[in-house]
Predict the 3D structure of the following.
Amino acid sequence: MRTIAALLAATILTAPAYAAEPVFDAMRVSQDVKTLSSDAFEGRGPATRAEAKTIDFITTQMKAAGLQPGGPGGKWTQDVPLLMSDIVGTPNIALHIGGTVRPLTQGQEIAARAALNGQTRVDLKSAPLVFVGYGVKAPERGWDDFKGADLKGKIMVVLVNDPDFEGGEGDFGGKTMTYYGRWTYKYEEGARQGAAGVLVIHEYAPASYGWATVKNSNTNTMFDIVRAKPMAEHVPLEAWIQRDLAVDLFKAAGMDFDAMKKAAQKKDFKPVALNATLDASYAVKAQTIVSHNILGRLPGKTHPNETVIYSAHWDHLGIGQPDAKGDRIYNGARDNASGIASLLELGRAFAHAPRTDRSIVFLAVTAEEKGLLGSEYYGASPVYPLATTAGMFNMDNMFGQGAAKDFTISGVAKLGLLDLLVAEGTKLGRVYSPDPRTETGGFYRSDHFSMAKQGVPAVSYKPGIDLVNGGVARGRALGDAYTKDRYHQPADEWSADWDLSSVGPDLTLLYNAGRALADSRSWPEWSADAEFKAKRDETAGQRK
């Protein structure tokens, strides 16, 4: 294992004059992670004092690397207006189950999000609970969990993931999660149904993370892009509940939770009223703030109006509820100081190499942890035309486990950009392994998704799990341990014991793929059956 201590003697302290084959400095990358994830940066929460500190660090590093300001008007940043929402004090939430009042403690039985529909109070009284299965309405698949039920003023209780998750086959492509399985979709559909609230039942396997992650991600400050009609997108009460609470709810209604979950996996499922109502009362402080995306750029020498993007999100969860040790700072070392450090190191490499034909943009986006909001805003208000953006390589949670024989991307995608990445990987002796956990819906959980929705060929790169030291078994074990013990928890901290042997190989592959695309005249396409191809095709005439 090549630890930081072992690499110290070989550290390159100054950026070399790169030719076509740059040498990446793992120690410098690690130091950037250490800085960004230190307690001094307070978890890099958007719209906190840490945001200015983070922007200053990233722009200083970009400038020192030799990048040019890439934001509007020659600035380093792009303004991102956001709705910021906080629950004031402790929310009063209680269930009435079979004549018994059961108060719910925020962060324990329930994780309620601050309302994002523009309201300054949530006041629900005796709102009936209705189990709507997976909460999916997918006419193209012949699936409708609602069957015309009137849910206005009611609370939807839904399962997470797709109806296929448990059985592994069916109308939703088996274990691979579709967007219908994402909790974000459940809330959106609740708004379309006119519901007063949506309670997502947490279970570890279909959610792909534990309750600690749910609690930490949903009980702090919430954000959304500024919407013309926020009530059309958000119900007043958006929350998760523990599985044990759901079991009690079903039992009080004379039903077995597991039996009802099985029933919900069939097309003929119909909504079922539960023998319970919900009260919720709390104030919400909602205000519009401005966060920032950060952009560095290297103009192309022959086709400067065509762009290749490298991206990573700079934000994390900030300061939140304390863990068992009393730690309240969610440092976000791997998620995603590692991605930003990788972005900076790639910027240094391209800045000290011969200029590419197309322009390269290094985009550090805000509010990924709040719903991919910085990238969504960029996709809606791009600084550089999306029609002539050849592709995007996103980086999220980049290293810490060691060099791997393989590499992967988040989720499932069929596009020429992945073909390019595979071809460049082959040259380096790296094998592409499809995402081993497509049931987690990884494709919809990183910033490349915001660009894909706009038609731009985009992938989120992931280091492999077939480790040089320990193979797949060790890679999977380390990944599972990170998800369980560190992901979205204060324990996601920089460590001097990290194995940095993956930094060089992964950044070399990303550099080579981006350079090949930037020096080519090719325009990667989506596959014929990809849901994003039609959007891309709308702008085909603008690409030559």
